[in-house]
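go over whats below:
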Amino acid sequence: MAAAGGTVGLVFVSHSTKIADGLVDLARQMAPRTRMIPAGGTDDGGIGTSFEKVLSGIEQADAGDGVVLLCDLGSAILTAETALDFLDDAVRARVRIVDAPLVEGGVAAAVAAEIGGDLESVVRAARSAAEGVPAAPVDPASPPLVTRTVTLVNKDGLHARPAADFVKLASTFTARVTVNGKDASSLLAVMSLGLIRGMTAEISSSDENGAEAVAALGDLLESGFGEE
């Protein structure tokens, strides 16, 4: 895994300048260090897509470790594919266009990049938005060795920013951890739980070295993420 800090870049291709800019603003709340470039609207600010904006976005987002493009509609994908044809072979080899929901996939990809995921890890995170959020696999022969139940105390519970902080922390441990049966290292899985203030989160691990991870994640939830 690459060093944390978002070395894989993202380009959000939308027919609307406001949508692309807004998605960067949203994702920036959870991935402040990741390179994210909006490529929305036509060159004159109208509704549509711009080959020049997409090509420029790839150049700006590329730090050498790859770029992931997400698009809102089919014609945006065509524009992105055209832009790829004009890239040098070396650059094109590290650019991926991902067919996934723009907002959910963009946010998931941004968090994956933020925690240091390589190009394929960021692609998988983006695709997870299209594949749904399955429960974390449970091996009946390996029941949880450690479990901790925490009541959420912050006003809005595990909304976007706290959920991202939770996932980032979970991803620093080698032990597999679940929260209410979902993968604690998946942003979309955690947010799908809809955990709000007063609800309980059961953090568990079946790994022999999972106690430290469960304790740290439980402490983070109990801290209220520094919110009032």
Residues 102-114 form the longest helix (13 residues). The chain has a mean pLDDT of 90. Strands lie at 9-14, 36-40, 67-71, 95-98, 146-151, 178-179, 182-183, 200-205.
